[in-house]
Amino acid sequence: MMPVPEAALAEDRYAFVRDYLARLPAAPGESVLFDVGAGALPMREHVEKAGYAWFGFDLHPKSPEVVEWDINTRFEGDQRADVVLLMDVIEHTYNPGLAMENIVRVLKPGGRIIMTMPNPKWSRARTMHMYSGFLACFTQHDLDVNHHVFTT
């Protein structure tokens, strides 16, 4: 396992993932990254700069470059990934165990999963809880509209 510098943990999740990817060995033209929950493609440029071929997936794609995939179902394609990126995705699944089984199935042998999720101990969550009585990302609106199902 690659060590994670303490300083990286203090940065936002996008900077953390960008820096982590920059340290992972990638074979340009061969290494593949699946960006699950790709949304508005915030990580694509960083992924490609790190030497990976980027493939975006989302339950509700907002870009023609992103393929629809509900990770609670098996992936239909033949492509496999060296890295699967799940940034704030897993907490939206009703069966995270099944979702992770499907993610593991798309990994090449020795592949890696990079996953982030909301943390109730995060400073924004603690501040919001102090003032509103709710955790950031877990208000009734988030539960109803964003379908946050659980947190760690």
In the CATH hierarchy, the third-tier topology of the largest domain is known as Rossmann fold
Give the DSSP E fraction (strand runs of 2 or more residues).
15-25%
The secondary structure category is alpha/beta
| CATH second-level architecture of the largest domain | 3-Layer(aba) Sandwich
Helix content: 25-40%
Strand order of the largest sheet: 3-2-1-4-5
Distance between the termini: 22 Å
How large is the count of helical segments?
A: 6
Radius of gyration: 16 Å
List segments where confidence is low: pLDDT < 50 over at least 5 consecutive residues.
Answer: 5-10
- Taken from the alpha-carbon principal axes, the silhouette is globular
- H/E series, N to C? HHEHEEEHEHH
Largest sheet, in brief, is: 5 strands, parallel
User: Would you state the CATH class of the largest domain?
Assistant: Alpha Beta
Brief sketch in words of this structure:
The protein has 152 residues and is of the alpha/beta class.
Structure keywords:
152 residues; alpha/beta; Rossmann fold; 2 domains; 5-stranded parallel β-sheet; 6 helices; 5 strands
